[in-house]
Structures are given as structure tokens and as C-alpha cells.
Amino acid sequence: MTYLDKIQIGVDFIEANLGNDIQLNNVAKTAGLSQWHFQRIFKALTGETLKTYIRNRRLSCSLLSLEVDDNRILDIALEAGFESQEAYTRAFKSLFGVTPNQYRQIEGKKRWLKKIQFTPDYLRHLNQQVKLKPEIIEQKAMMLVGLRTTFYGSDSDKNNISQTLPALWDAFLPRIKEIQCRSDPYVAYGVVQPTTENAELLEYIAAVEVSSLTHIPDGFTAVSVAASRYAKFSHRGKPTQLDSTVNFIYSTWLMGGIDWHTQGPDIETYGREYQPNSDESVIYYSIPIQ
Length: 290
What we know:
This protein is an alpha+beta fold. The protein has helices at residues 3-16, 24-31, 35-46, 50-66, 73-79, 85-96, 100-104, 120-126, 161-172, 242-253; strands at residues 135-139, 142-152, 188-194, 201-210, 221-225, 228-236, 266-270, 282-288. It folds into two domains: 3-126, Orthogonal Bundle (Arc Repressor Mutant, subunit A); 135-288, Multidrug-efflux Transporter 1 Regulator Bmrr, Chain A, CATH 3.20.80.10.
């Protein structure tokens, strides 16, 4: 079974439960993935968050109910999973450009473009891109020391990467010389992992490798990365474009079904080739595989 198959299982679960309360972790569990990895792959593949897909599919399904004049908009809203008619109306207008009442007055409603259900053929179509070949490495165990924060990634409706991660690096780099026993003075790492298995909230640590944990500066944290097999990809371009490369990794290479993400931490590597704000900059992004 490929990742594409697993995403389709999740989509099928959503379609079967559009009239019920859908918890994102249950969608992922049905597909046999953690919530973070399901959401990350879904966003990379489709370009939208899982929560947005569910909301828009419910809104599209509600169009049929609106075409029956006897159905109260409040009842339609509740059936679509909204807590009030007002919330439903706001979301409806945001998606379709008109209110539910205005939609009822429009002739030829069925010509409207609706939010389609993702099918296996459609997901496969989204996945047809140029392949990116990584270097497969045996990553040794590492002891890291750095600064930690939590954030919501681009696969979440709460995405706050641009507010959170640059600020962390701005705080970390001026204090990097406080860290003793550094293994390589020219390399830094960004470690990314979910805070819990079924959470959108992620943990990010800006760090360097050390040979000893005898002295950890105030406010810093230590983290151990276990030895593992990694697929190491190179991102050439400005750091602000890194998320596009990560999306490409998750939506294209990982979808091949040859290797599987272990659900361990992803690692960003900033070495001698890294140049802030340069199109020639190189960052390495590695995912643990089995």
C-alpha cells in the first residue's frame, strides 16, 4: 500500500462521515498514519489543509439541501457541522461569493463549480511531477544543544511559521558561542517533530551538535537524535522557499511507496553552503525512513 492509497483511505473516511463530527486524528488513524504526517502529506499533495478540505466538502454538499426551499438554513448549517447559521453563512460566502439566501435565488444552480471529492485518479493527477532523488544516508546518533519553540506548520490552518521560526534563529545565532564542546563550528541543525502523536502543534529546535552535555547554557535545551537511515534532499534557493521543497518531498518522492517515514524527527542542515537570502544557498532536508 502506497502513501497515495493511505490518503485515499482517509478521504473515503471523510466522505462517509461528512454528516458527523470528524476529528482529524481519527482520519489519520484510519489511514494508519500519525495526524502530523497525514496532514503534512495531504497539504503537500493537494495544496490545502485537511480542515479546509472537510469544511469545503460539507459546504458543497449543503448546496443540494439549499435547492429544496422547505429546508431551513439553520438546519442545513447544523447538518453541515457548523455551530450556528451565522458561522455557516460566513463560510459559505467566503467559498462561493454569495450568501445561502442569495444562492437560493440564482437560476441554473447546478452549473456552479463545487468543491470536488478527491478520487484516486484525481490524487494521482496531482502527484505527477518531476522526481527528486535524495542521498540515502545512515545518520549517526547525535547530541544537540539549542533553543526550542513550538509552532504550527503550513499544513495547519493555524500556520505561524513566518512569525515563529525566524525569531527563534534570531535569538539562537547570537548565543551560539555560549555552547561548549561543539562538534563542528560550521554546521547548525533545525529539528522538526510533532509534540504528540495526534497534535498539529510541532516542536522546532535550532541547535548544534556537541560531544558532551556537561554544560548547557541557561535557557537552552538538549535533545538526542537516534541513529537512523535518512533520505537527504538538497534545497537550492532562498531559505524562505524551503517549505516548497519539503512539500515536494512529501507529495512526490515519499508517495513512491518504496520507503516509509519512521515518524521520527525531520532534520534541516545548515552548513558551509548555506547563504542567507541567496538563490545559491543550499540547505539539506532529511527525513527518517525505513
